[in-house]
Hints:
This protein has 73 residues and is an all-alpha fold. The protein is 75% helix and 0% strand. It has five helices and no strands.
Amino acid sequence: MSADYGKIADYMIMIVSEYASDKGITDLEAFWKLDACGGIEALEENYEIEHTLPISSTIEALDALCARKGDAA
């Protein structure tokens, strides 16, 4: 991954926070939920594309990922 790790970390923190806000849960709950369904890994692996998309699209993609993994968000 050629991106700056600080930028990736900042982006992931922002997405987890936005996800938590959208779902009405704490940031920690959102992190654990996303980690369990592979969302954290997907954000890291796809940073180069994801950070160029609207936040709402990323939240929708994370919802879909969690639903496929058996956790309807």
